[in-house]
Protein: Compass-like h3k4 histone methylase component wdr5b
Organism: Plakobranchus ocellatus
Amino acid sequence: MSGDSYSVLPDFQELRIRSDSQGDVGSEVSSLSHRSSLFSHTTKTKSGPHLEGNLKLYDTIELSSDVMCCRFSDDGAHLAVGMCDGTIKVYNPANCQQLYTCQDEDTSKNRLPVTQIRFRPFVDGEKVEYSHILIASYASGHVKFWHYTSGKCLQTIDEVRQTLALTINPEGTHIITAGAEPQIHKYDMETKQKVNTMEPSDSHDIMDGHRFRVFAVQYNPNHPHVFISGGWDDTVQYWDDRKVHSVKKFIGPHLCGDALDIDPVHNHILTGSWRKTHVLQIWDFAMAVKIKDVPQDTLNHSQLYCAQWLGKDSIICGGTDQNMARTIDRGTLNVSPNDQLQLVYSVVRQGIPHMLGLSSMASRSSSAEKLRQK
């Protein structure tokens, strides 16, 4: 993730979302208010978000299908939302109006979840046709390259597995995919051809790769060939994308979603685990050792599906069980009681300071649980 510049947040900010009914809550798009804002009272809306702290609800987008992931474009001009039925909808964050839909025969036929979305970086001087491209992975095993303003699928890669995670290298020349099998694939962005497969060796004496599902992959912005990954086997693996086996690992996090992030300024790793204890942790990237556990509220716990650094000073995370989405000051790590809300499966910050997006599910027992258990 990029080291975007954000204003310093108060010592503790927490976002709580709660549904007053069991109706659909598609996607909450929330904005962090400026530090000078004194908006700190509780706000409720008919369909649910319950806010506390120095936060302001910008708007709510309600959809007909569960939301699995969301992503802002690099310039913050577009918000892409991936849904359980395989549809991607693109919105204007300024007014929350739907602009485009990405759906084709494959997604309509399979109706399987969109598991990850990434916008292709566009560099000045490139061909115009390279702008407005997003890449999406699906539980069907497809990886699709969309020209989202026209709704046209430019190319499809079929991995013949559940593809659960996707990321782009810092230079924008390759993509990495991971999923239901231990293998991690690297593709050339231009040709869409596979250029490397990273996997564990056959040796039982060394764990130089994953043994189970991989749910998160993340490049280090300071190292163009180095990325990390995590999943069910309770390890975070370090990879050089030019080699076959992982080069290092640490043991601990149990990842079931996009809950792996790197702070390029401090060189710290953030992990969010889907379990009862030790859910949010900070690690030293270079040393591969834990720095600290971020404490949970003693009365209300949440098993995490997603976690990100929010600028250099804060953390945002969300999950299930007690079902909270919250922002936490990185320095004080203060915590306070949490309310219930719909299951939070994705959090993403916008390129514009103070803006973040959340996607939540309409039912705790729906798509995320099924995808995690398969």
